[in-house]
Amino acid sequence: MTGTQVEDLKKEVIGDLLFQLADDDFLIAFRGSEWLGLAPHIEEDVAFSSISQDCMGHAAMYYSLLEDLGFGKQDDLAHLRPASERRNSIVAERANGEGVYMETPKYDWAYAVVRNFFYTAAKKVKINSLRASSYKPLADVAAKINMELHYHFLHWKTWFAQLMGSTDEARMRMEKAVGLVEKDFGDMFHFGAHAGEIHDQKLIGDGSGLQQQWKHEIEKVYESIGMAPPKLAPAMQLNGRMGEHTEDLKSALETLSGVYRLDAAATW
Question: Of 16, 27, 136, 189, which is least packed with CB atoms within 10 Å of its CB?
């Protein structure tokens, strides 16, 4: 894409969307990495680690596009921006549960399954829309991500259906997790301060339309296991797209970027 074409689409509008996409995957990948060695069994440990690695790779592709647009070095964009500048959804930043990974974590597998199932379903409809983005470099990245996303969604859909159809205790814990995830999901299809321009410039589909597609994906899974679908109309508690975040994000960034901040000029 030429400089003129980028200017026509407005660099700051493209950048806003790219930061949302990058920060979402960056944080969801980190939260997934914290399950290393803690997943229910060894096969899941390998699978979840692979999915998290893929998501971090997706974040890197978005940060690379931001670097190409002149927003700064991709590693700096990933590691040096403060929490107030992050544009990820609230659900991506939430801690996995009580405790600290290297000490005495008491993480909730039901929450991990529901969060990743809901998030991956949302990512699936977004990527499908981004494949037709007016910003060709983004459309090209979406096409690459789409090849992996099918398997990510299948993985979490399988876990979700199995646990919902398992024991009474499993069902109870899953339903509790659904409630927690829904509370943080209200900003997932909000596109921030430039939402109108993002849609007008056809960078991605309209948020309300994408949310309806997401609900349809979720409802299909509920119906396949004989469950009445939930309302799935999450109210917005905080809007991460507008820089509103929790303390969980600050602590995540301290852990994620601690080593990089020791010497940002080094070659990593």
Answer: 136
- Report the CATH number that the domain containing residue 48 is assigned in CATH: 1.20.1260.10
98: DSSP letter: E
pLDDT in tens, 107-140: 999 999 999 999 999 999 999 999 999 999 999 9
Q: Give the CB-side neighbour count of residue 203, counting CA atoms within 13 A.
A: 27
Please give the Cα distance from 16 to 197 (Å, whole number): 10
For residue 148, is it within any domain? yes
Could you tell me where the DSSP H helices lie in the chain? 3-9, 11-33, 42-68, 74-79, 90-93, 109-130, 136-164, 168-183, 195-200, 207-224, 247-262
Q: Cα–Cα distance between 115 and 119 in angstroms, integer?
A: 6
Please list the residues that pair with 106 across neighbouring strands: 98
Rg of the Cα atoms in the chain = 18
Burial class (CB in 10 A: 0-12, 13-18, 19+), 258: exposed
Q: How far is CA 244 from the centre of its chain?
A: 16
Residue 4 lies in a domain: no
Q: What range defines the domain where residue 20 resides?
A: 9-262
> Quick one: tokens of 174?
């899953």
> Is residue 2 in a domain?
no
Local structure of 139: helix, strand or coil: helix
Residue 27: CB atoms within 10 A of its CB come to 26
Q: pLDDT per residue over 21-52, tens digit each?
A: 999 999 999 999 999 999 999 999 999 999 99
Number of domains the chain contains: 1
Closest CA to 210 of 133, 111, 112, 115: 133
